[in-house]
Amino acid sequence: MEEKKLNIEVIENSSFKPELIIPKNVEEKIRYLCNQVHDREWSGTLFYTAEGSFEEKTFKATCLDICVMDIGNTVTTVVTDSPDIVTYRIDHPELLNGTVYEGIVHSHHNMGAFFSQTDVVALKEDGNDRNHALSLVVDNRGKYVARITRKINKETQVHQAVETNTTSYYDTFNSKRVSLEDNIHSTKTNDFVEKEIIIEYFNMEINKATVEDRFEELATRLRNLSTKTTTKKVFDKTNYEGNLYRWYADYKDDDRTYEVPKKESKPVRLKNTDNVIRNLAIQLVTGSVLVGTNNFDMVKWLSKIDTYYATRFKNPKDYEVWMDTIMSYLFIDNAEAQVDDKELKDIDETRYLCEHVYDYIWDIYAEHNIQSKIVDDILDRLLDFCTL
Predict the structure, then answer these.
(1) Are the beta carbons of 39 and 74 closer than 8 angstroms?
(2) How far is CA 261 from the centre of its chain?
(3) What is the CATH number of domain 2-153+196-208?
(4) Which stretch of DSSP H or E encloses residue 295?
(5) In the predicted model, is pLDDT for residue 109 greater than 90?
(6) Residue of 59, 77, 304, 309 with fewest CB within 10 Å of its CB?
(7) Which of these, 85, 78, 76, 63, lies nearest to 19 by C-alpha position?
(8) Closest by alpha carbon to 317, among 112, 71, 73, 111?
């Protein structure tokens, strides 16, 4: 019997939110890791137990432990299987029980906890390899999101019967028709199995223990001191030998005139969104959803943004991935939460927010005659997002 395998489909099941319990010992580890590795993504194996059922809407998972496997860069971390996991289980006999399962945990440090496009793809792949894939995303602020999948296999047995009636003839001299076969009946059958895989994911309700990080303030102070320099470095755009302008010129074709077009007219600003627009602009240019916005000096930041990015990104691909991630989160994944749906009515949230953030940044940029390739690129990307 022939088999026909269809593509794998990923869909959300919103019928209920399974519970994810994070006890004190696991929460303490997560907070410690976020504190120690505060500016890069880290990932590891999440050990957990499961009980209840999806059908009865009683399923819940309890975290037992985590084993850190990778410390990445500012935008990515690699999650791979490793013999270290087996060694870790042996060193922790409570994890050798056959009812202890493995999931994934990784951080988004200062970018906020959400499922990026990369995370969604990874969940799909992991969900196809396992019966259930559990993924937990955390950030430095203590915000978590989690999903768990189930792999649904659909097999459809198809029986096709084709009945035919055949008549055959030929025309001869004097246009005479000679019949060879008259209405010969036959039946053909075709049996095959259609296979379909559906990866269903459930957004989880997280119930985590409250822990006290007694040395968070001290750790932050130590980090600030460790990065402080006694000699002030002068950033010269014309002969800078650091990271940014060396790769950025090649990557963005610096020989051409790079100008961001200014829209001739401003879009209408809805009421009660001024703070939203300002906060989004600050989060975008700093690359952090956790940054304090009350006393933020946008002029000062835009004036030195190239220096900051030159230090932060040593590779153009890292910059591209990070920018795609933060913009997708701010203007697509989180767009609906930023404004009042009743006020927007039929207005597209992403377009509305991008247009006004563009104008907010542009007005400051132009008024103070700031020169920045990074700001040019951000404004260009905002225009692209307006057309999504």
Answers:
(1) yes
(2) 29
(3) 3.40.140.10
(4) none
(5) no
(6) 304
(7) 63
(8) 73
User: Residues near 208 by Cβ (< 8 Å), separated by ≥ 6?
Assistant: 21, 22, 27, 144
Alpha helices in 288-372 (DSSP H): 298-312, 316-328, 335-338, 341-344, 349-367
Strand 205-208 to strand 19-22: parallel, antiparallel, or no bridges (unpaired)?
parallel
Highest mean pLDDT among 210-219, 246-255, 350-359: 350-359
- Condensed to tens digits (0 to 9), the pLDDT of residues 295-346 reads 888 998 898 888 888 887 777 778 888 888 888 888 877 766 666 555 554 4
Q: Give the residue carrying structure tokens 């390739």.
A: 373
**Two tokens at 115?**
């499922």
For 94, 223, 331, 351, 380, the CA distances from 384, given in Å and listed in that order, are: 52, 37, 12, 10, 6
Q: Highest-confidence range of 77-86, 267-276, 299-308, 325-334, by mean pLDDT?
A: 299-308
Higher-pLDDT residue of 345 and 142 is 142
CB-side exposure of 218: number of CA atoms within 13 Å? 4
With CA atoms as reference, report the closest residue to 52 among 42, 44, 62.
62
Domain boundaries defined on the chain: 2-153+196-208, 156-193, 229-386
Q: What separation in angstroms does the CA of 214 have from each of 32, 119, 130, 220, 255?
A: 11, 32, 39, 12, 52
Q: Mean of the pLDDT values across residues 118-142?
A: 90
Amino acid at 358: Y
